[in-house]
Write a structure and sequence with these properties.
Number of helices: 3
Distance between the termini: 25 Å
Strand content: 5-15%
Number of strands: 2
Largest sheet: 2 strands, parallel
Number of domains: 1
Radius of gyration: 13 Å
Helix content: 25-40%
Order of helices and strands: HEHEH
Length: 64
């Protein structure tokens, strides 16, 4: 999950992968596994998706 504010903190402690953005509330990065180098609305979600895609095994083909 990706969140950037105080209401997101509780959920971040429950999920397997907690992500946040560069301009998040100061407490958000402390609860996250990863923080984007981009601000919310400026490509942070795409950066996170690219990170996840790059981490997948290279022999994985979508739909197979």
């Amino acid at each position: 999950m990706m969140g950037d504010d105080l209401p997101d903190l509780d959920l971040k402690h429950r999920v397997g992968l907690a992500l946040t953005v560069e301009d998040a509330a100061p407490e958000a990065p402390e609860a996250a596994h990863w923080a984007s180098q981009r601000k919310g609305g400026e490509g942070a979600v795409r950066e996170a998706c690219e990170l996840i895609i790059a981490a997948r095994p290279t022999n994985h083909v979508a739909g197979h």
